[in-house]
Amino acid sequence: MFSQSDIQELIDKAFEAALEKFKKQDYKDADIILSQSIKIQPDNSKILHLIGITKYALQDYENAIKYFNLILDKDPDDFETLNNISLAYGGLGNFNLSVDFLKKALKVKSNASVHNNLGVQLRHQGNLKEAIYHFNQSRNLCECDTEIAKAYAMIAGCYGEMKDLNKSEKYLNKALKFDNNLAGAHLDLSNIYQLRGEWSKSWAEYEYRHDVFEQLKIWRKIYNAEKQWKGESLEGKILIVHGEQGHGDCIHFFRYIKFLKCKVILHCSEILKTLLQPYVDEIYTTDPVAITDLNEIPFHDYHCSIMSLPYVLNASFIPPAPYIHVDTKLEMPNYEQFLKIGIVWTGNPQHPNDKYRSCYLKNFKQIHDLQNVKLFSLVKDTRNRIYRFEKDPIDYTEGADDMKIIDMAPFMNSFKDTAEIMNSMDLIISVDTSSLHLAGAMGIPTLGLLSWNNDWRWGLTGEISEWYPTVKLFRQKKLGEWNHVFQEIKQEIIHKYLLHKGKVEI
Predict the structure, then answer these.
(1) Residue 396: helix, strand or coil by DSSP?
(2) CA–CA distance from 289 to each of 268, 269, 273, 285 (Å)?
(3) Measured between alpha carbons, how far is 464 from 473 in angstroms, rounded to an integer?
(4) pLDDT tens, the chain, 506 aa long
(5) Alpha-carbon separation of residue 44 from 53, 74, 173, 464 (angstroms)
(6) Residue 326 near residue 442 (C-beta atoms within 8 A)
(7) Which of the residues 82, 122, 133, 454 has an alpha carbon 20 to 30 A from that of 218?
(8) Which long-range contacts (CB under 8 A, 24 or more apart) does 388-392 make?
């Protein structure tokens, strides 16, 4: 029979074992140990705290909150737990409760980290001015230069969301004075230059993306840093140019390929192969994640990311479009009397900004109903979207059952197929996804749909794209509101396409 002291000794040893597992980020094993321990001593504050932060690390936010609440039931002013429970609520997307608990924590003690966390949650709420106040408070309380730099960078981010680029730039430069190695601040600075069209200033700062974007680190694993092209002569050499982000990025920067005076091997996805094959010497399509033997990579003297080409080439100008040419198109004799419009309302659901750049298909209803207009869907993936902080999946086709749209998805097995379909259209309308880049790269008349906080390459204002002269841009005036954008597009179609071609009377 175990005595109380024996039991306590076992619990203490279990706690220490769980703590070691936690420190090594072995959260699952830590959770198993703690889940057994808490059954024996359900009021043990140390165990409650550690199991709470372990659940949080496992993104089991609801159970983390349950354990944190058990601590707060005994001590409502437990400073650390007030901070932790707020972060758990933030993980669930409940920013209101997160803010409430952080404000309670600040009443207990003013603390740089809590002010910073409160700024983050307020920013999620869209309460940017109050967020700036708390980031400033955090900065004033910080003792470490790197933490001060991060606070300045967060302030800059808030001003960036407000589209106040001057203030955003000012605070980013302050951040870099405290920590010039803060990669995120350099990347944000590059975005400001890019939004202004200051390309020659932007490209060096944009190189910091390799230290920020987690998905880019795979390229460093498979390509030798010593062979990275830094502008050396390419005469008689072989250069591998690899993609790095999305398909649209590859198409966007493909315009720089023609300036490479050497044998070029393009490392890209299989779906781009037939579209881009005519412009390079060789194409290699193995997924970088699937490469286990580096010897299978084609021989090369140098390698370079396609999005680093303007930096390495020291390009201060934008090579003009069109630069991708597809001669073939689909024959559509049954629709010759119509204005044929290819439409794209969603992109890759894995894109971090997909929730804001995508729109519902039903937004196209007022265009669909125009006389002598026929819409062709160029969307390949129409699955429901599951976004963080959203309880229910989003179906972007909801409310569009009565629309008679020609679905081209069965004919779209590569970007070459999509290009041939686009070649058959009179007009393309697309959200900011790879289709928008493809249409622009081909010089097809296109109307681009941009969300409020659009990507850097489209600039802050205006309807003309420096990158794609045949793309006319239509911008949201408020985040999430597409109605006025489609009203403007409807008028554009009527007056520029239908009346001009005698296809409609008003």
Answers:
(1) coil
(2) 12, 12, 18, 11
(3) 6
(4) 556 675 677 777 878 887 888 898 998 988 888 888 778 778 888 888 988 999 999 999 999 999 999 999 999 999 999 999 999 999 999 999 999 999 999 999 999 999 999 999 999 999 999 999 999 999 999 989 999 999 999 999 999 999 999 999 999 999 999 999 999 999 999 999 999 989 989 999 999 999 998 888 899 999 999 999 999 999 999 999 999 888 999 999 999 999 999 999 999 999 999 999 999 999 999 999 999 889 899 999 999 999 999 999 998 889 999 999 999 988 888 998 999 999 999 987 777 777 888 999 999 999 999 999 999 999 998 888 777 777 788 888 899 899 999 999 999 999 999 999 999 999 999 999 999 999 999 999 999 999 998 999 999 999 999 999 999 999 999 988 999 999 999 999 999 988 765 555 54
(5) 15, 11, 47, 64
(6) yes
(7) 454
(8) 388/93, 389/92, 389/93, 390/93, 390/355
Can you tell me whether residue 289 is helix, strand or coil?
helix
Task: State how far the Cα of 27 lies from the Cα of 10, in Å rounded to an integer.
Answer: 20
Which structure tokens are listed for 54? 């372990």
Q: Please give the single-letter amino acid code of residue 311.
A: Y
The residues, any chain, with a CB within 8 Å of residue 379's CB and separated by 6 or more, are 343, 344, 345, 346, 409
User: Distance between CA 271 and CA 195 in Å, rounded?
Assistant: 30
Structure tokens at 80: 């650390």
| Per-position DSSP letters for 292-308, written without gaps between them | --GGGSPP-SEEEEGGG
Nearest to 382 by CA among 369, 394, 368, 370: 394
* E strand map for 355-425: 373-377, 406-407
Exposure on the CB side of residue 252, measured as CA atoms within 13 A: 24
Alpha helices in 333-380 (DSSP H): 354-357, 365-368
CA distance 285 to 270: 5
Buried b (16+ CB within 10 A) or exposed e, 368-399: bebeebbbbbbbbeeeebeeeeeeeebebbee
